[in-house]
Amino acid sequence: MSGQVREALRFPASPAQQIDPYLPPSFTSTSTSQTESKPFVTLTFATSLDSHLSLAPGVQTVLSGPESKAMTHYLRSKHDAILIGAGTAVADDPSLNCRIEGVGGYGAEGLSGQPRPIVIDPNGRWNVTPESKVIKLAGSQRGRGPWIVTSKESSIAEEKRKLLETVGGRVLKASTAAERPSISWANILQVLATEGVKSVMIEGGGAVINDLLSPGNLELVDSIIVTIAPVWLGKGGVQVCPDERVEGVNRVPVGRLEDVRWVPLGDDVVLCGHPNKS
């Protein structure tokens, strides 16, 4: 890989022990119940005090501090896969690997502890190239080759498919409903389960987060971990605000967390909880 290799990160045991109850359980290789249903889903993101992810669409905005950044990589080490939407892949050119000390490429041989990067791209928007960070990291054995999940109706250019395959990546196809051109989350998770993914950490962007928090999808989420930074970004940014939920003629809350825990990390605070599915 060209350029300087970024250093390994450490996450202290004390906050890790507080966050561990919200992470995927350890599944044995002989267990099939999880594969038959869906992966364990952790939704995680960082927001400002006014619930914004960034200053404006497509603008990278640093919110969390170094302690929270290390936590993100610790979370990645505990999941089979990291998932983002095509918009985030296009705007950020993310690395989508894990830099916790002791995982593959950062103190260990092979790819042990490295999650599988997954990009949801129904319409082939992400122009992945040999210069994409995720491809370079996979080529240098500091990350896994990415999977693209696209619709069965979409065609992926042959050169893009070959590029993914050279670093161990793949293109996966998922069905779309006639009344909805996008791929449903239930279908996405079923495809991943079929491929043996037992846990997935969903990191964004805004459209993905709001869609998963909306009525009908929140029940698919098992755990939510939110880093809250001590800053207001102001109007015009990308906000976490899912669609409303209506019962009869009345608006009701979209959802609520239970088993809540607040974990201070540097200047940030991390909110952990499980969606109340009752």
TrEMBL record:
Any GO MF annotation of the entry: 5-amino-6-(5-phosphoribosylamino)uracil reductase activity
Bacterial bifunctional deaminase-reductase C-terminal domain mapped to chain residues: 39-271
Superkingdom, taxonomy of origin: Eukaryota
Family listed: Belongs to the HTP reductase family.
Protein name as it appears in the record: 2,5-diamino-6-ribosylamino-4(3H)-pyrimidinone 5'-phosphate reductase
Function comment: Catalyzes an early step in riboflavin biosynthesis, the NADPH-dependent reduction of the ribose side chain of 2,5-diamino-6-ribosylamino-4(3H)-pyrimidinone 5'-phosphate, yielding 2,5-diamino-6-ribitylamino-4(3H)-pyrimidinone 5'-phosphate.
UniProt pathway annotation: Cofactor biosynthesis; riboflavin biosynthesis
